[in-house]
Structure formats: structure tokens, C-alpha cells
Amino acid sequence: MFRRRFWVSLVLSLPVIFFSEFIQDVFGYTAPSFPGSVWITPVLAVIVFAYGGVPFLSMARTELKTREPGMMMLISLAITVAFVYSVASLFLEGTTPFFWELVTLIDIMLLGHWVEMRSVRAASGALDELAKLMPDTAELVTESGDTEEVPVSTLGEGDVVLVRPGASVPADGEVVEGESSVDESMITGESRPVGKEPESEVVAGTVNQDGSLRVRITKTGDETALAGIMRLVEEAQQSKSRTQLLADRAAGWLFYVALAVAAITAVAWVVAVGFNIAVLERVVTVLVIACPHALGLAVPLVVAINTSTAAQNGMLIRDRIAMEESRNLDTVMFDKTGTLTKGEQGVVGVETASDWSEERAFEVAAGVESDSEHMIARAIRDAAQERDIQRASVSNFENFRGLGVRATVDGETVHIGGPNLIEKFGIERSDDIAAFAEEAGSNAETVIYLVHDESEVVAAFALADVIREESRQAIEALHGMDIEVAMLTGDSEDVAKAVSEELGIDQYFAEVLPEEKDTKVEQLQSEGKLVAMVGDGVNDAPALTRADVGIAIGSGTDVAIESGDIILVDNNPLDVVRLIRLSKASYRKMQENLVWATGYNVFALPLAAGILAPIGILLSPAIGAVFMSLSTIIVAINARRLRNVDLSVAA
């Protein structure tokens, strides 16, 4: 609406500006004269006022009803006074109409609101693209095992659908059959396709790659992760920051200031020169120049670009006040599992017998564990894959409950298992492997042994919840900003201490139950600290709510949680650093813009009132409009520079 009204008003304004006497004098030209040419300016200006000024008059009516004058009241006052005076000047001798100032004022305000709306809309632009990926139909698996094409809107929880290669997942669900990889980049930002197998979760709108999947629907409609994302963006667009609220209040104060200055101007000029048209023109000039073009854009433009930039970097803002508060944080508390760590077992160390290489140990172990779905087996396979080691061919695979597994490799028997396995066989470990296992145990790591021929421990693998590489970078960056880092975990003291020491965390809380996490946040707050809590938004919900800034971090399926003020779409602790940097940069731009915006009024209003008239300096409405436009342009350019802020974190 603002875009359409801006372009129409701009086209109609060009002749008004072209035929303006002031513009002709400034640029040294004479507009053509023909019958009726004198009416071009007033007629088109009236049309621009009626068409382009209506939105502001309508919004001002709301402020008037609530008796809370603000930006719209001030804008409406300025354009209405300019309009009424200009029309009246057509019939009064010795007056100069404000038609070109009127249309320029309306055009600039329409442009500002259009740019603001477009910038805010950009925050959900990528999400709109995701919404386009949602299929209209799905292949429902019937009781007979056949498939039937049905509208997505008819799917219900528990239904099973077939997702063919290249098709989009129609709703959130769980894989019940099949293996494939799924492109989740539009939701999580992860560029690599994510492997899916039975019991894996899939998200509506993501695209299946190479295999067929049968998916049991768990969430539909407004309950899906995609719907949650769209809802979060909408809430972010509707919320306001403290600085924006300050700007709104400033506009309200300026409304009264403008009326007061206009009244003082009228009295002073009547006393000085008596009542005449010049007095009325001076009062109108004050009211027109008081219109807060730049003030009206100072904060909204920054907030809009902030929201857009955040969304493009995987940060969804539900509460703008929380976003603004992020710049003042002095403590960030992370939940450990799934946030600082991957929440899954991984091989963090290996020790082998003197006649076995690490490559040979991984080759055999990965081969033996190739058919197992146990998390330890998966960790060993993943470690071998990361090292580009091929799995050995095995046969006669057997699983022994509580002990481990056995298989035949190259005609020889090998076992993989924990301490119970070597105790059962009564095998002595070499000094190196025993020392390795003791050190791993002190770090609360799980040790798994590879046993050859039931008589020799040939390798030991240490497994632990793998720490994200990004966690180290994030904590270093936070320390670089003089922000303390704390950690919460339900794990044992040994585990918490080991992770804390490895990452350089300032303070940790171990063996904390979910219902106790918020008390730890409160404990830090009682020490006078401004605390951000970073967690997965499920078990950490009370702590997220208690924190000054609640930051929910998680994959696409967790993104729709309601406990966080700010949602990080991807599981990347570095986004916390980017968030704080963006908050600082945004606040800095708001401050700069408010200085420019208020500076214009501090400078222009006294001049418009005629404070320097005794020495021959009098600000005309035309010159005031030029200053007004310049101030607005500076504010808009400065806000746009926020897009150039470097949010990258050096490795």
C-alpha cells in the first residue's frame, strides 16, 4: 500500500515541484505558461494530500482516540496545516503557499514507511521461500500398503506418507522405513544433506534427496516447525525495542513542543510587528518544519534492517527488547549437551598395541560394528569415515548382551566391548593401553576395547560427548568481549569439569536437574549480572524464561519453542557471538540516527520561529524542507550501513 501510494504521489508531485517558484529560482529556469498552468500545482497537491496523506491521518486518529500523541499526530498536524494554509493562500494576498513542501513531506514519509515495511518483510523473505517448498499434496500410505494422493491439509497425526526422491516432506514426522538424505538448508542453514534412517525426525518443507522414505506424521498445520518460524517472525515484526518506544515518546513530546513553539512564535511576532499574514506564515512554518521525518525513520529503519539481517544469519527475534538488551550482557550461560557439545558419542582418543596401527584398528572395529545401531558402534564407524578408512569385511557377527560383539575378520576372531569383556577373558592390558584407559576414565570418557583372539587387547577407544569446534571459537570470542561464560549440565562433576577446562569456561554447575536450572540463572542474577541463557528450549524452558535474555538454540524441529526471546535456527554457539555483535551495532546506529533526527529539530525550530530575525536570518519553509530532506537522507543511509556490519567470527 505504501509503495503504491508513494509512486503515484511521486509522479503527481513532480509537476508541483517543477512549477514551484522557489525551485525555479534555485535552478534558474522559467516554467512554461499556458492557460490553466497556474492550477497545476494546487490541484495536484490537493490530490497528493487526499491520496498520499490519508494513511497518516487514519493512524493519527488512533493516537487521538487513545490520547497518546505520537509520530502520526505530528505528521498529520504538519501536512494538514500546510494543506489548509496553502489552499487558503490562494485567496489571500501576500501569502506564499507551501504546496511543494507539502507534497515533498508526504512523499518522504510514504517512502520511509515503504522502506521500513520492505526491510521488515525481508526478514521473512527466506521463510516465504521455504513456505513455497511446501507441497499441496502428499502420498498417503493406505492400510493395504498402496499409496493415495491426498491434499496435505487432510493429513493427521499418525498417518504414514511416502516421500519419494526429490519430493518435499509434507509435514513434521518420524521416519519409519527407508534411508535417505534430506536437504534441510532452508531451515537449519546446514549446507550438507542430513542422513535419515528409521526413528529420524524430518521437518515439513525440507527436500528428500536420493532414497524413498515412509514417514509417520507427528505434527501438522500450525504445529509444524515451519509454521512456528513464521509465527516467530510475525511476533518480531510486531514487537518494539526500548529505543523505538523512546522515539515514539519523543515524537509525542515533539508534538507538544511544536504546539508550544508555534504559540510562543505567534505571541512574539504579534507583539513585535502586530497581527498580519507574516505572523500566520511564521506559525505555519514552525508546524510544518516540526514534522519528524528523520525521527520517524531513525529507529524503525534500524530495527527493520536488524530483523532482516538477523533472519538472514539464522537468528529469529521474538522480543526486540531482548535483542537490544543483548548488547549489555556480561554473562552467557550455556546448557552443555546439544549446545556446547553435539549430544552424541564420538571417538576422542585411541591407543593401540605396538604391532597395530590406528588405521588397522579402525578398519577392523568399523567392520565389526558395521551392522550395529548402538551409539558406540555409530561413533566408531563415523570416526573411521572421517579418517577415510574402509571397513574390513566381517562374518559370523554375534552380539553378547552386556559384553559387546564378536565377529570373524580374515579368519580370526575379534571382540569389541567394555571393561566387562576383558574381565571375562581375564586379559591383561599393556602398560600404554592401561595408562590411556586410566586417563580417559579421569576425564569421564567411556573406554571400548578391541580384543584379538580372546587373548590380547590390541586397541582402546575413548568415547565422549563430542565438543563442537564452534564452541571453542565462541567462548574465545565472548571472552574477547569481556563476557563471562558459565555452563549448566546434568552430567557428573568429572564430566562438567573436563568440558569446562577444555573450553576455558569460567564457571560450571554440574548434576543440575532440569527444574533446578532456573535457580542457577537466578543465582548469577543475584550477583548483579545480566545473564543470557542458551539452551535447547525444551528442558531449559524455565531457565530461558528466567534469564534476562533467553536464547533457544536447536535444529528445525526445536525452533518453534515459545520459551526463548531469540531463536537460533542452527545448533551453532557462534551465533550467540553474532547476536551480541549485531545488537551492539544496531544500538549504535539507533543512537546515531536519533542524534541526527533531534539535531534537525533543535536547529530548525528556533530558526523557523524567527529567533535570528533581528539580524536578518529567517528560515523559509522551502529552506526548512531542504534541511528536512537532508536529515532524512542521512538517517536512511546510516541505517542501511547496518547491513555492512561484519558478523563473522575468526577461526
Brief account:
The protein is of the alpha+beta class and 651 residues long.
Explain this structure.
The chain is an alpha+beta fold. It has 4 domains: 2-123 and 236-304 and 586-644, no CATH class; 134-167 and 172-219, Calcium-transporting ATPase, cytoplasmic transduction domain A (Distorted Sandwich); 306-340 and 468-583, 3-Layer(aba) Sandwich (Rossmann fold), CATH 3.40.50; 342-467, 3-Layer(aba) Sandwich (Calcium-transporting ATPase, cytoplasmic domain N), CATH 3.40.1110.10. The chain is built from 25 helices and 22 strands. The longest helix is centred in the last third of the chain and has 36 residues, at 574-609.
- Report the uncertain regions: 555-561
| Secondary-structure class | alpha+beta
Radius of gyration: 34 Å
Shape call: elongated
What is the average per-residue confidence, as pLDDT, rounded to a whole number? 82
Largest sheet strand order: 10-22-21-20-11-18-19
Would you report the number of β strands?
Answer: 22
Q: Please give the share of residues in helix.
A: 40-55%
Q: How many independent structural domains?
A: 4
Alpha plus pi helix count: 25
| Strand fraction | 15-25%
Straight-line distance between termini: 45 Å
- Biggest sheet, open or closed, and with what strands and sense? 7 strands, mixed
Tags for this entry?
alpha+beta, 4 domains, seven-stranded mixed β-sheet, six-stranded antiparallel β-sheet, 25 helices, 22 strands, 51% helix, elongated
Secondary structure elements and pairings:
Elements: H1 2-18, H2 21-27, H3 40-52, H4 54-65, H5 71-89, H6 99-122, H7 125-132, E1 137-141, E2 147-151, E3 160-163, E4 172-177, E5 180-183, H8 185-188, E6 194-196, E7 201-202, E8 207-208, E9 213-219, H9 225-238, H10 242-273, H11 277-289, H12 293-298, H13 300-312, E10 315-317, H14 320-325, E11 331-335, H15 336-340, E12 341-352, H16 358-368, H17 375-386, E13 394-400, E14 404-409, E15 412-417, H18 419-425, H19 431-442, E16 446-452, E17 456-467, H20 469-480, E18 484-488, H21 493-503, E19 507-509, H22 517-526, E20 531-535, H23 541-546, E21 549-553, E22 566-568, H24 574-609, H25 621-640
Parallel strand pairs: 11-18, 11-20, 18-19, 20-21, 21-22
Antiparallel strand pairs: 1-2, 1-3, 3-9, 4-7, 4-9, 5-6, 5-8, 10-22, 12-17, 13-14, 14-15, 15-16, 16-17
Helix pairs in contact: 1-3, 1-6, 3-5, 3-6, 4-5, 5-6, 5-11, 6-13, 6-25, 10-11, 10-24, 11-24, 11-25, 13-24, 16-17, 20-24, 24-25
